[in-house]
Amino acid sequence: MLERMAANNFQLVEQKPLVEVDDLRVRFVSRDLDVQVVNGVSFKLNEGKVLCLLGESGSGKSVTMRALMRLMPSHAELRGNISIDGNDMLSVPARKLRKLRGRLVSMVFQEPMTALDPVFTVGNQIAESVAYHDGVSAKAARARALELLELVQVPSAARRLDAYPHELSGGLRQRVMIALALACRPKLLLADEPTTALDATVQIQILLLLRKLQEELGMATIFVTHDLGVACEVADDVAVMYAGRFVEHGPITEVMDRPSHPYTEGLLRSTVHGSTRGKRLDPIPGTPPDLRDLPSGCAFAPRCSYVRESCGTSVPWPFQAGSDQHTARCFRLDPNEGWAATT
Ligand SMILES: Nc1ncnc2c1ncn2[C@@H]1O[C@H](COP(=O)(O)OP(=O)(O)OP(=O)(O)O)[C@@H](O)[C@H]1O
Fold first, then answer.
1. The pairing of beta strand 19-30 with beta strand 76-84
2. How far does the centroid of ligand 1 lie from the alpha carbon of residue 277, in Å?
């Protein structure tokens, strides 16, 4: 009886999210530049879950990811709150931040050659990261590097430990990059278009590998992609970005079944994945906005077929779009606007 009560109570306690981002704003300011590229992003992500960031080029996906690790150039101004496993990422001192990068959160980049050092063997690079974070001997770190190369399914891993990055194919380099990112068993993995630079068959292999590792290791993952098919394959939740904002956010199945922002609708109509077989693809008219010169209300209004006068007056806030986890920034969802009956 007591056990059952304890179990019921346990179910009632809501899981504390691993990642909590509140009103994140990123602005680049220098002598001849002043541009707000992320503009009020808020979201939560639980342990072991996958969030995909989707959106056109320049919408702020990569900058949002880098902000989570505070990997920003000196002319970036970050505002808002980012908490990862209780760590306030925007205010932890630089020394602690270096420890958190790798151990708490680490990143797989689009192009591994930018992250791997060409003058060290891949084994040395992975072992160095293990030794730095875990404080183990050089021998133990090398043994762990071998384990990691095996985990990411690098063939002949023992031999590949002594290879330099340029001696490996693109797909193998990406696997090494993943091994490096996993070296300290992070709770959160950030993957910024990790397959874009690879050819189609290798892309699928790397995606399957990432999904398998994510499930086996129970890591939360944030995945940046342009590709709706990839999002459907890997995500629990999706956030659609437009001009530095999440214009739609929710469980992937709900967003795909019932897109509630006109931009998400457009994305679905414009991709092979979203269109019905045999039906013509329908590109979104117009071009993405210039972030230095955004319209005063909804940034999507100039391209939107539902646009009304009120869209130009204020920025829509996130309205509930389905379940209480699904929101979209569109006035069509405002119960006070009375649009539902007319659109
Ligand atoms: N270091 C920087 N200095 C100034 N502007 C920058 C910097 N990095 C990114 N930006 C600008 O921030 C905006 C968002 O860039 P971001 O790389 O996040 O877009 P994205 O959605 O990831 O696009 P893509 O899919 O092409 O990678 C762009 O307008 C970009 O030019």
1. antiparallel
2. 33
The closest alpha carbon to 241, from 189, 181, 293, 291, belongs to 291
Please state, in angstroms and rounded to a whole number, the distance separating the CA atoms of residues 260 and 78.
Answer: 29
Ligand 1 mean position to 198 CA, how many Å?
21
Instruction: Locate the ligand 1 atom nearest the alpha carbon of residue 38 and give its number.
Output: 14
CB 291 within 8 Å of CB 243: yes
CA of residue 73 to ligand 1 center, whole Å: 12
Do residues 39 and 27 lie in contact, with contact meaning Cβ atoms separated by under 8 Å? Answer: no
pLDDT confidence tier of residue 68, bands split at 50, 70 and 90: very high
Identify the pLDDT of residue 331.
Answer: 94
Banded model confidence at residue 276, pLDDT cuts 50, 70, 90 = low
Asked whether the ipTM of the predicted complex exceeds the cut of 0.95, the reply is: yes
Q: Give residue 63 CA to ligand 1 midpoint distance, Å.
A: 6
Q: Is 135 left (phi over 0), alpha (psi -120 to 50) or beta?
A: left
Angle at 223 between CA 218 and CA 227, to 5 degrees: 135
What is the distance between the alpha carbons of residues 24 and 26, in angstroms, rounded to a whole number?
Answer: 7
The pLDDT of residue 273 = 59
278 lines ligand 1 (CB under 6 A): no
Each residue's pLDDT tens digit, 280-309: 667 888 888 999 989 889 999 999 999 988
- Asked if 320 and 334 touch (Cβ cutoff 8 Å), the reply is no
Taking CB atoms within 8 Å and a gap of at least 24, the contacts of 230-234 are: 230/52, 230/195, 231/52, 231/54, 232/256, 232/273, 233/207, 234/50, 234/52, 234/207, 234/210
What integer is the mean pLDDT of 160-183?
Answer: 91
C-alpha span between 24 and 41 (Å, rounded) = 5
Assess whether the C-beta atom of 63 lies below 6 angstroms from ligand 1: yes
